[in-house]
Amino acid sequence: MSSLNYNQVSLHKASYEPDIPVNNATPCFRDPFELTPPQIEEIRGDSMEESKKAAEFSLKDFKVIDNIGSGSFGIVYIVEKDGKQYAMKELMKDQIIRDSQSLYFVMEHVPNGQLHQLMEQIQNNGQKGLPPTLAKFYSAELVCALEYIHSFSIAHRDLKPQNILIDEQFHLKIIDFGDSKEITEQDMIENQRISTSKISSGSFSKILLNKDQRDHHNHREGTFVGTPLYVAPEMLEFNQSGYFSDLWALGCIIYQLLTGVTPFQGKNHDEVFSNILERKIKFPPYMEREAVDLIDKLLAFNPEARIGYNNFIQLKQHPYFREIDFKKIKSREIPVPNLDIFGVTLQSSLITDDSDDSARRKFKSFFNKIENEDCCSGVVDYKRGVFEGEVKVRRKLFFYKRRYMIIQDNGIILLARKSGRMRCDMFIDGNTEITRLKAKRFQIKNQRFQEVIESPDTDEWMRKLIQIREQLANKPIRQSTFSKPR
Question: Any idea which positions bind ATP (predicted)?
Answer without folding.
Answer: 89
